[in-house]
Amino acid sequence: MSSIATIHVDGVWLPAASGETREVLDPADATTLQLVSEGGAQDTDAAVAAARRAFDEGDWPRTAVAERSGLLRRVADLLQRDREVIALIESRDTGKTLEEGRVDVDDVTNAFRYFADVVMNESGGRVVDAGSPDVHSVVVHEPVGVCALITPWNYPLLQASWKIAPALAAGNTFVIKPSEVTPLSTVHLIKLLVEAGLPAGVANIVTGAGLPVGQRLAEHPDVDLFSFTGGLVSGTKAGAAAVSGAKKIALELGGKNPNVVFADACATDEGFDTAVDQALNAAFIHSGQVCSAGARLIIEESVRDRFVAELARRAEKIKLGRGTEDGVECGPLVSQQQLDKVEAYVASALAEGAQLRCGGARPEPSAVRPATGYFYAPTVLDGCHREMKVVREETFGPILTVETFGTEDEAVALANDTEYGLAGAVFSGDTARARRVAARLRHGTVWINDYHPYLPQAEWGGFGKSGIGRELGPTGLDEYRESKHIYENLRPEPVRWFAG
């Protein structure tokens, strides 16, 4: 299989300087999907140098807001033009269903359009009352500079857009390193940026491993901002390297997210059906490979038996298979490494006393097609408690743990008993209770009687070890800007502080 040049530096597509390539695998059958350039430190340095020149000497940072906004809108239109192509790339590369891929493209389109609108609707700065008619004081926003962007393998295109769209809207240049496991949709996005008319050097991509590419971006002295989405261990290590260079940093490091279900949410057949359906959606969409997955079901004791029985019954019926096949509801895990990790978590949970209600193994070869893919059956583990490794750590797989509570205070205590704080949900038929509990949860996003929707207008990020900073919303744009105070004396005169 021939390789494609996937390193883009200063407007040119290049192979790796070393000549090395990497196999990108199709997780549905473990075959090679594409050979891509395997970049290293030399490629990274070249990309940062191009971004530095484009920022310091190029026109993009000084381009009129209307022009930057217009480019983002053109990119949004191109994304919709290529919707089916990109959705197929994303499905084949990550294993998610084709319909999930289409939803991702639409969400990416919305992100570009949102940030295009935000910068167009801003004023020329915030006027500050200096208390004197002889002073004009204003706070303006300027681009940070060269941005290093690191994205994860589970939502490669979506996470890229959450960084690229605000970075460009603010007038920055960037180098992006997508996950080496799923780089293909990000490569396509860079091509669309070029087609939309983005000047050479503004958008650069280096495909390759976290070591050396990601680490070099974190350490590079010519990078002004380091934005990372991924796992806690690698994120904190890279973030520490970035902080040592006094860079501005933003880290989104995942979560271990509670889905709290009160008995009153299940008081009617319709309410019960909705709560069970949403619990399945929370835990098993994209095979649980979601940073905000509702992997911890925290349910009121009085409805636990009925709820878990129905949950397990429906989970067993989830159809596994290649994401592009009709009727498939869940695709494979992204890699053999991830499959091994999920198996280890389930084994540890059972050793610690969890009760297996369904799943807990790879499906039989006759039950899924292709049989050689990285598939794992949706798994429900009952009788779990906070001391279990599977409850404490982010599993990033189709594993749902079940904990129970008796009172509202107990529910809140359980939901907040985590090092993370990215997202969570409350299901209740009592509006006052739902809002009261939501207010007490220490998580960056809290859903009430729903799970997973997000809005590009609303900030996304977490408390605790879920990270630093926010993406999306007005704050998501501010991450890519510096504030500058300009104080103008309209009637200058001597101060006479010193006698002279």
TrEMBL record:
UniProt lineage: Bacteria, Bacillati, Actinomycetota, Actinomycetes, Kitasatosporales
SUPFAM superfamilies named in the record: ALDH-like (SSF53720)
UniProt organism field: Streptomyces sioyaensis
Protein name, as recorded: Aldehyde dehydrogenase family protein
Active site (UniProt): 252
Keyword Signal assigned: no
PANTHER family: BETAINE ALDEHYDE DEHYDROGENASE (PTHR43860), BETAINE ALDEHYDE DEHYDROGENASE-RELATED (PTHR43860:SF2)
Pfam name, any one: Aldedh
Assigned protein family: Belongs to the aldehyde dehydrogenase family.
Pathway info: Amine and polyamine biosynthesis; betaine biosynthesis via choline pathway; betaine from betaine aldehyde: step 1/1
Keyword NAD: yes
Gene3D superfamilies recorded: Aldehyde Dehydrogenase, Chain A, domain 1, Aldehyde Dehydrogenase, Chain A, domain 2
